[in-house]
Design a protein that fits this description.
Helix content is about 40%, strand content about 25%. It is of the alpha/beta class and about 425 residues long. A hairpin with a 2-residue loop joins strand 2 and strand 3. Bound molecules: guanine and zinc ion (ZN).
Length: about 425
């Protein structure tokens, strides 16, 4: 049993306007799960010996961050200069991803990637691997070692990429199915069928991926959609028999409530309406969208249309794996569209919100009793400027805004996964 006493913030319901904040809270963890949570006074009254608690009076505990879209083989692609999406893929990304054909390289990189997420407070993620099954094996193995709740998939790509990256409609599906059987639902791991995007998949492969998804309805689907104007034009030419970009997924059985589509910046009204109707998830990748010059996701318009939205780093199009940095960029993109993202809305998004839209909310994303004990402990004193600014604010909202605007991974004093400390960095201890 582990006892923690600190300030605690989470969203018991999937509504950013109803946070639960406990100024002096206690969490009781047993067998990786939250057995009890509440004000210290109440738990003490119930007979709990608070002298045994790890006590961090000024820190802030929150559910571990969830990153619903990033690329495992792109840690060495981050900060690649001078191009937009299609050239960025060809010039930088594909050559890097080719290195993941080698098991030894993939294994070593998987440990680095998992450690990088944990030191940034990310405890769950939806990750794209390379097209090589060994890259998915490597990532699942590394995540299992840390007991992470992680969903991943090998990318399917059977055209428009170097030969070293191409699978076929057949091998792509047989490799994916073998990975589903080996990993989906084992420990805390899950599988996502991962057609990279309609630029690198033939209609035959998209159809095969849709058929696979129909046979495994509790497996996720992840891909990219309407990120860049040149991409959209190119895809129109590649798939002329489809009504639009969305239809290349929709008509092939790849658009449903478990489908996570990265970007969704330039959708037409009809696409937005059909996307919303399908209950699919548009994944907002603000850092990547700015870095690659892709455009401003119409966050408010999509929300008003009833689209489910996740917030993600999109490493390596994104320039930071840190979900706090992701929120800083999300705020700025919204500002450019006359919307000021509320700090409660922002932190809800990277915890409970991302859990809800991905259907992981039965397991993670909040501190409800019985949930898996994944959390971050943030300590403002680890960054002098944040500490100074946070000391001067009068509300929790303002404190959160400082964390998401001026904070970064240095704020993360501890990341706990399934009740166990997975990362700790206490400056000054
Ligand atoms: N579209 C297809 N592949 C990718 C990728 O790896 N990153 C981004 N940002 N967009 C893509
Ligand atoms: Zn992506």
């Amino acid at each position: 049993m582990r006892l923690l006493r600190s300030r605690m913030l989470h969203w018991p319901q999937d509504d950013w306007q109803s946070p639960e904040y406990i100024e002096d809270g206690v969490m009781v963890i047993e067998n990786g799960k939250i057995r009890d949570l509440g004000p210290a006074e109440r738990l003490q009254g119930d007979g709990l010996d608070l002298a045994k608690a790890e006590h961090y009076a000024t820190h802030l505990m929150m559910p571990g961050f969830i990153d619903p879209h990033l690329h495992f083989p792109q840690i060495d692609v981050m900060a690649s200069y001078g191009v937009q999406l299609l050239d960025w893929l060809n010039d930088y990304t594909f050559p890097q991803e080719a290195r993941y054909a080698e098991a030894a390289f993939s294994n070593q990189a998987a440990h680095t990637f998992v450690d990088l997420m944990l030191r940034n407070g990310t405890t769950s993620a939806f990750a794209f691997c390379s097209s090589h099954a060994v890259s998915a094996e490597a990532l699942f193995t590394a995540a299992k070692k840390k007991q992470m709740r992680l969903v991943a998939g090998k990318v399917l790509m059977d055209q428009n990429a170097p030969a070293a990256l191409l699978d076929t409609a057949e091998t792509g599906i047989s490799d994916s199915e073998a990975l589903i059987q080996r990993w989906h639902g084992h420990d805390r791991l899950g599988y996502a069928i991962t057609p990279r995007f309609s630029g690198t998949s033939t209609a035959l492969q998209l159809r095969a991926a849709g058929d696979l998804s129909e046979r495994y309805p509790d497996v996720w689907v992840q891909s990219h959609l309407s990120e860049n104007l040149a991409e959209i034009d190119w895809i129109r030419g590649l798939h002329p028999h489809y009504r639009d970009y969305l239809a290349t997924y929709e008509d092939n059985g790849l658009l449903g409530a478990r489908s996570l589509m990265g970007h969704c910046i330039h959708m037409s009204e009809s696409e937005i309406e059909r996307f919303s109707e399908a209950g699919a998830v548009a994944v907002f990748c603000p850092s990547s969208n700015l870095f690659l010059g892709s455009g401003l996701m119409p966050y408010q318009a999509l929300r008003s249309a009833g689209v489910h939205i996740g917030f993600a780093s999109d490493v390596g199009g994104g320039t930071s794996i840190c979900m706090l940095r992701t929120l800083a960029d999300a705020y700025k993109i919204c500002q450019l569209q006359q919307y000021s993202l509320d700090p409660f809305e922002a932190f809800h998004a990277i915890t409970r919100g991302n859990a809800s839209v991905t259907h992981l909310d039965g397991f993670v994303g909040s501190f409800r009793i019985g949930a898996e004990a994944d959390f971050v402990r943030l300590d403002a004193s680890q960054i002098p400027l944040v500490s100074r600014r946070a000391a001067a604010v009068r509300s929790l909202r303002d404190e959160l805004f400082i964390y998401m605007t001026l904070g970064d991974e240095r704020l993360v004093a501890e990341t706990t996964v399934f009740g166990e400390v997975a990362y700790r960095n206490e400056v000054g201890l």
